[in-house]
Amino acid sequence: MAATTVTDSGGVRIITEVIPATDPRAAQLASGSRPPAHAASSFQVRGFRKAQPKALGTIHIFTGIIHVCFGIILTVSEYGTPSIPVASGVFFWLGLLLLVSGSLLVESEKRDNISLVKTCCVVNVGVILSTLVATLVHTTAIARNIPGCDTNTLYQLRAEWCFNPGNKVLSNGLDCMFVIFCLLEFCAAVAALAFGYDALKQHNYTRMVRGGPGPGPSRGPSQP
Question: Are 64 and 133 in contact (CB under 8 A)?
Fold first, then answer.
């Protein structure tokens, strides 16, 4: 049963009616006072856009293309004696992952979709782990000799390119370049993940507030 109180203040009579949660009018009034779901989602996506996902996505797409192109070139040129990065396939699986991540980040700039933000966060976790692994692979390649130039015996013949120190310098230069790329990709993925996680926290908090129990709706002031 609804409880009604009447208060007179400054010539204005205020009638307050507390409606129980079981009353059908409570559901109608509560639904009318809630903001649309898409409006709340749009607010959280705007928070994610503070990270400039289009710029971060462009970085991932650009470096992903570089990884794939160099992977093709080095795989062909090092056929038979592949280096550690080529043998591990890091150029291809990291490059493709960066292309996917970059495409999702660029798309999140255009669409107000919190599910797209969640997908970006999941993919960027993979990018963070993959860049750490790729950095380890490239630093290991820098520390080791050129493939095919290791000799186990004193009189074992080595290939002609093993006697040219410029080949090792070139190989180390490429690996250092990709280590720098991995650092750039890592920073971009961390930024996207941080802002995405913050947007998801706001989304979960908004759902909790909108879905949680609240006081019964009341009627506004009315003139006597």
Answer: no
